[in-house]
């Protein structure tokens, strides 16, 4: 019997495929049964209502996209009243993504969202820390450590720390999150990028800059997922540019115990369901008994020792 | 003001199925210099549409055209009996240029039907459509629906020039009173449009007004709606990524109860209350 | 008369198109007259002979490539004996790219390469600093400042500092380089990435990881070029993913005074010559009199104030 | 050892022009299950080739196949009189699959001719070619050249099975003594090959040996070359980005004067001295 399950701390997922925050919502239930997924991950919410960034909020770049949605949020109360009950009908665990501009606000939101129906909290620490210089918490080990420590005190639920690629210290940040008590890492959020319309000479995003996601981003996020898996003992959830079942397999081989699918769902809304089938087929034909056997099976030999922590391109 | 606002406020998630299917191209031909008509061989399942709804098209990728995101396109016609789905589109950039390369027999993947369409309330007898350019694409199925429901229809069709006016015959066949206006003949200005509509209101009366796109027309109809207490709806556009409500990129601002609220064009729209809409 | 020239410190280039280091060599002269280019930029050299990284040294990722060539080098003496004389036959200025593992070695190489025939020195500070923790000099403002200060003392030639995208401190690093005396910034080198062959489960590069270049990288490098142009007064040379004349225009609008073309030359070896023609056509049809008028003409309004220094994806 | 090493050491940059041209496809057809023959309508300028040289092909991009880098391909035939350039290729991955989609009349951009080809020194009368599989592609133009120069040619062609053996007739037409060996008939093993070659050496003698690719064959010929003091050349492969010498990704290691040196396959190769080559 093929075993598709994967373990993320205390949580067992029936398969390693789940959506990425901000690229999934209740509406997708109009396309397929959401209970086929390993977990459900909601768009990041904030405590207060927020309207998000100016439009245009997305633009296309060669084979990928940029977004500057920001975090429009109906607020905590609306979320508890409408969203959590919606997902109650499913067996798949609900992962709630949260964000705030300071460690204290972060911690109090974390506490208040630790309610029945929520299986784990994903902390989007890739958002700017307004108390410091506006750099995201996850850009530095110190701020990562500080915020995760507070969050750890605020909840008994599993805490997933979502990292940012906008740093030169991926492994240090990963270790700081682990040390401060994160139960898993999500690697990663989008990479800061820009596009300009050469006809109007205006930035293509209302917000000037935005995050790169989609296929172009894959080799970068895969590298980060690999680095993190090599440097921490907590599970790593891969995220970035995953568009095909081959991409899923690549991340699992690199060491991710599960993956999140973002932009690909915009292009092919059934893709997550198809990936689950595709993964099953792959494992069967390759003679694997379980997803676990595939995870971290990269044949990196000696190379890994010297190179894992290399963070300069050669 | 006592115009009854139409129920365009966020409705609880409706779990109508949405389909993502590959359809064979029956025809894809120029309609005039700027527009093309795409006819797909579509399964019955996706043809349960409401006028004003749209599909999200996965445009083909080739050596020279590599659109990545899908492209939203209003339903120009849906014909369950013939199994046909029609789009009328203007070639503007990479995605629509890629659409234009499709030939008979090739396939195109379409997601839909999507969004909230137009309403024709039971007591709306005299309907006014005001369309400009490719806006006709969006309003055409509404005209057919009105015809089926036996409503009286006036269609004001505006365009740059005579030969840019499409589908006039189609509207006439549906029994509409068609009023063509063009920039060339100097008849398409707002002043003239206002005079024509006010005459119509004075003559038979108008129960509801429908339009899409143009800012100038939106403002005119909002003003007329307020003055004469006539409800209306408008179909709006915004750039889309997911097309089904997940990404929140397609928001536009609306006036509602003295506040400005953001709504998703793909989900709460693309059809919105005329008075709540804000031009851009 | 259309003015294609661009000014980089004391150097006037006849047009803003030049190759990127490591993607250009004498052999390209077999395809077109290299004197059409604004400048010639050599592959990074080191003082000693080096053989570079294990193969495979390149691999393909969706619409782009990774490389881990490393810095194979015939050494300083061979370079002076063979390469500099070769480029002497051209009017286009010769820019020599150098690298070393410590500030002292860097400075002494810089001094020894300051010879007739060399118009400027590009310092590849995206290479690992072996004295520190192996992170590239250009990953931190402090190490950037230290190395550029020494280099500045070592030569009278113009110094171009080539930055790395593997940092969360792009603008700080840019300012450090400026403060320490760099005459221009090249933005940027490749971004650390990875790919795994799912059939063999081996990394696709012999070196495990490598640098992403090509179209997928463009929105990231463009964002960096924009951030740098907004935060320093020295000229910025854009580099990253430029494949078409539209890309050249986008970088110039963003604030780059010139651009370097890398990977695109591998796909279309005549591309630089074509871009010069294309730029000329664009400027003429758009009614510009000079390249200068286009540089930095991005219509970023108020947005730029708040956003330039944002280094977290929204 | 007194084998004269061939001049494969780095030569000063030769400034022979290299062309990047778009050619129309004349034919692109399967040769047997695994191989395809691509015939291009090529301008005279790019047909001044040396056997063993290669072109760098810009494979077509489609919805499903999106190769990015170019793909190196040996010249299988160059015919200035007919204006034709031939490639014989095996469909292995994305690039070659994309090549296989080309149909007559479509165009393909090719960069070349590139690299250093085979040498046939004036005093080499009896030549031995040993090829396996697609290696024939690389050696075929060498056979033609040998024929034109009036040299005696022995061609040992090895393959998995009878039907994988290509171009035997072509080699025979060129007057070669063709010796087919297959895994199926158990004749392709190294031992048998050695016996055949040694018999040939004893009989007419061999002045030079040429091969490509296979490790087993390389080792065999190196050993025979040393024993019998026969020079030889081998065409090697390595992944390429630029194809013209700029990127240094295509290096392989060679023994030279007691040291191991890296050489660029695209530039110092793809043809190298047989004894200097290192298998992998
Ligand atoms: C609900 C809806 C219905 C539509 N119906 C029609 C129709 O029936 N006929 C028709 O010709 N056009 C229609 N449009 C507009 C159509 O979607 C755009 O013309 C098309 O997306 C342009 O893509 P492009 O790649 O050719 O142009 P580009 O300008 O290259 O597109 C770049 C990006 O901007 C987006 N974009 C550009 N213009 C628009 C626009 N007006 N609205 C939304 N996104 C845009 C594209 O989707 C793409 O993501 C509709 C738009 C919406 C939102
Ligand atoms: C000088 C030279 C001459 C060649 N001549 C021929 C020929 O005449 N006929 C023929 O069938 N093949 C030939 N090859 C091999 C051919 O280049 C590869 O089969 C082809 O590149 C595979 O590309 P792909 O995308 O189909 O395969 P993939 O495996 O998907 O390729 C992935 C990457 O690896 C590279 N690659 C894969 N295999 C090879 C290889 N053997 N050599 C170099 N790069 C490789 C590709 O170029 C590409 O960059 C030659 C190679 C070289 C270097
Ligand atoms: C439109 C959009 C909105 C997003 N919103 C969020 C968000 O609210 N919170 C978050 O942590 N990540 C958000 N992300 C990032 C994704 O969760 C994911 O990390 C990223 O897109 C990389 O994965 P992908 O390449 O598969 O899309 C968003 C991404 C996109 C494209
Ligand atoms: C094969 C290869 C070799 C490179 N070698 C060097 C180098 O030696 N020194 C350097 O500073 N940058 C080197 N680079 C980086 C390029 O100069 C350039 O910064 C990068 O590729 C981004 O530009 P592109 O996307 O146009 O290729 C190399 C890039 C490639 C692809
Ligand atoms: S397009 Fe994604 S929410 Fe509307
Ligand atoms: S392929 Fe670039 S040097 Fe050989």
Describe the structure.
The complex is a heterotetramer, with two copies of chain A (about 325 residues) and two copies of chain B (about 280 residues). With about 325 residues, chain A is an alpha/beta fold. Chain A has one domain (about 5-310): Aldolase class I (TIM Barrel). Chain A is built from ten helices and 14 strands. Chain A has an eight-stranded parallel β-sheet with strand order 3-14-13-10-9-8-7-4. A four-stranded antiparallel β-sheet of chain A has the order 5-6-12-11, with no helix packed on it. A two-stranded antiparallel sheet of chain A has the order 1-2. In chain A, strand 7 (about 95-100), helix 2 (about 105-110) and strand 8 form a beta-alpha-beta unit. In chain A, helix 4 (about 170-180) crosses helix 5 and helix 6 (about 245-255) packs across helix 8. Chain A is globular and about 50 Å long. The model of chain A is unreliable at about 305-314 (pLDDT under 50). With about 280 residues, chain B is of the alpha/beta class. Chain B folds into two domains: about 15-115, Translation factors (Elongation Factor Tu (Ef-tu), domain 3), CATH 2.40.30.10; about 125-235, Nucleotide-binding domain of ferredoxin-NADP reductase (FNR) module (Rossmann fold). In chain B, about 20% of the residues lie in helices and about 30% in strands. Chain B is built from five helices and 15 strands. Chain B has helices spanning about 95-100, 135-150, 170-175, 190-205, 215-230; strands at about 20-30, 35-40, 55-60, 70-75, 75-80, 85-90, 105-115, 125-130, 150-160, 175-180, 210, 230-235, 250-255, 260-265, 270-275. Chain B has a seven-stranded antiparallel β-sheet. In chain B, strands 10-9-8-11-12-15 form a six-stranded mixed β-sheet, with helices on both faces. In chain B, strands 13-14 form a two-stranded antiparallel ribbon. The longest helix of chain B has 14 residues, at about 135-150. Chain B is globular and about 55 Å long. Chain B starts with 18 loop residues before the first strand and ends in a 7-residue tail after the last strand. In chain B, about 45% of the residues are buried. Chains in contact: A-B, A-C, B-D, C-D. At the A-C interface, strand 6, strand 11, strand 12, helix 5 and helix 6 of A face strand 6, strand 11, strand 12, helix 5 and helix 6 of C. The complex binds flavin-adenine dinucleotide (FAD) (2 copies), flavin mononucleotide (2 copies) and FE2/S2 (inorganic) cluster (FES) (2 copies). One flavin-adenine dinucleotide binds near residues 73, 239 and 265 of chain B.
